Amino acid sequence: MIALTPALRLALVVLAPLLVMGLVRHVGERLWPAHLKRERLHGVALAVWGALFLGQALAVPALGGVATLLVNAAGGGLIRLPARGVGWWAGLAAYLLVMDLGEYLFHRAQHAVPALWAMHSLHHSDRAFDSATAARHFWLEPAIKTVTVWLMVGVLLRTPASVVGVYVAVSYYHFVVHSNTRLDFGRWSWVLNGPGYHRVHHSEAEEHFDVNFASLFPIFDVLTGAYRPPRPGERIQTGLDTGEEPQTVGEALVWPVRSWLRRPLGRLRRLAAA
Ligand SMILES: [Zn+2]
Ligand SMILES: [Zn+2]
Fold this sequence. Notes:
Blueprint: H1 6-31, H2 44-73, E1 79-80, H3 86-112, H4 114-124, H5 141-156, E2 157-158, H6 161-171, H7 174-177, H8 195-201, H9 219-223, H10 249-253, H11 255-273
Parallel strand pairs: 1-2
Helix pairs in contact: 2-5, 2-6, 3-4, 3-5, 3-6, 4-11
This protein binds zinc ion (2 copies).
One zinc ion binds near residues 110 and 124.
């Protein structure tokens, strides 16, 4: 066994997701593209990517796990998951399922509650669906998840750090889920989320609204009637049905404000015109 110094371990933690992202982006999406995707608005791709990349792509998947460990350290964890042996695997399965159910419920709320949709629509605004889309989330959303879903999971499950570590590593699979690749599980789409399945969720067409919410396991979509597997040869155009997309990093950083202000500003305008 190779002994890793803490500095080397930290380097691995940072480099591994970068490597996954790089492979998906520079190998998978080039050699095996789903179809010619639309161009991003000039400047948005690099700017948004650069500004939000470290926070979104690296820290957010880890934040869910860190929240569990912190809540556990503060005394949370009604059910203790086994730290070794065969039970460890059962605990891992339980943790993955419970975290994923939490993500699923939160995602459904993001589409059902207008104030949450105002933020989540930033993720859906990407007309050039690819691995960079995985990092396009409004900055406040992880904080909201921390005090809701992730807090609840920490209260429910006392989880070994090794299980949390595997969960964090698995979370980087979202680069693959959002990749512009032909990867599609067809009739097995109910087993694991993938680019073909998740692209339908990002469709700009009304007929695809409110389907395929799953983060890792589409079984939650199957159970709630929101399962819509991709069809052979189907070409999905992604983005918002309104065509809205941030043009600058600044717009991405204040994305929901314009939608929150739309009603009061409209009222003011009507009053001014009266
Ligand atoms: Zn969504
Ligand atoms: Zn997505």
